[in-house]
Amino acid sequence: MEQTYTAEEFKEKMYSNLKVRPSDSVILMCSIFIASIGLNMNSIPIIIGAMLISPLMTPILSIGLALSLYDMKLLRAGVRLLLVQVAVSLTVATIYFAISPITYASNEIIARTEPTIWDVIIAFAGGTAGIIGAQKKMSNNIVPGVAIATALMPPLCTVGYSIATWNVDYLIGSSYLFVINCAFIAIATFIGVKFMGISQVLTKQDANHKKINRLLIGLSVLIVVPSIFSATTLVQDSIVRTGINNFIEEEFSEAIIISQDYQKDDDLLLVTTTGKRLTEEELADIESRLPDYGLHAIELSVTQVPDLNGLSGEQAARILQDYLESRLQQFNLFDSRQIDLEDLPFELQNEMN
């Protein structure tokens, strides 16, 4: 018995899967609702569960197949189903986040707002595996695995969160991630169908195939360029923060670090220490070694708090008050008596506690 669909059977299967069924819409609504809760609660297992039941892969694979076969009828059906699914998903996600009492952006939400070149690679690899798995007749775990790897649902949920909270930056980032996933799954499907010989069986080359190939290449470049820039920024930021941690650990090894704050926009590293007091010459010498850690453009500002163990309670309280007032000024909060503690940044709350 054949374990894979023939080219004709595979095409018919795709056509039959592109019908807009109420049952599939209900499954999609459940999936997006579960994924929204998972993102809201910062729960990875819940998010994975939502992706397992998501039917979003089907129209994207169909779009890739249609482009490979130059089948405009199949392409229109795939695009129509995808648009319906996206509309349903955004509606459910937006309504959920609009009524959810948890309004802050969790780490899982933030993670879907800065796509990089690695997301492009994952989507392409996932699309390649997805089209291979979709051609198999026997039940397999390839397509569910691709659904998890490419993570189509979380970006859509994040778009819904962005709409509900009017966050334009998150809206742009999460929408871009969803476009990356859809585009490169479809492109990988297009290439996979060519390599598997399905398109050669079902179609003959015509005048449109070169135009479609050029269109896909142009679309790929257009989508990839911003992701490369984002990845470069992410790598550079990671290198800087690693350098800062190494610098603090090695150059202030004899001091007690109360806090460290890197202000990226100003290229300023703020360090507050206690314990051994450093002279101006020692601080200048430490600052001169910043380039050794790859921190060429960063300026160092050190605030030294006297060792509180050797002070009276009144002296310690006064020093801490002065320190907290300086920290408040850094956050543009000038009158601490009129500020609710809950309105302060989390780091500063810990310091005041």
Uncertain stretches: 333-353
CATH class of the largest domain: Mainly Alpha
Tell me how many strands there are: 3
Write the CATH fold name of the largest domain: Glycerol uptake facilitator protein
What labels would you give this structure?
353 residues, mainly alpha, Glycerol uptake facilitator protein, GMP Synthetase, Chain A, domain 3, 2 domains, 3-stranded mixed β-sheet, 15 helices, 67% helix, elongated, Hydrophobic domain protein, transmembrane helix, DUF389, transmembrane
Q: How would you portray this structure in words?
A:
The termini are far apart. Residues 333-353 have low confidence and may be disordered. Helix 2 packs antiparallel against helix 3 (44-52), helix 4 packs antiparallel against helix 5 (72-99) and helix 7 (117-134) packs across helix 10. This protein has 2 domains: 7-204, Glycerol uptake facilitator protein; 239-352, GMP Synthetase, Chain A, domain 3. It has 353 residues and is mainly α. Strands 1-2-3 form a 3-stranded mixed β-sheet, with helices on one face. The protein is built from 15 helices and 3 strands. The longest helix has 44 residues, at 208-251. Helix 13 (280-288) links the parallel strand 2 and strand 3.
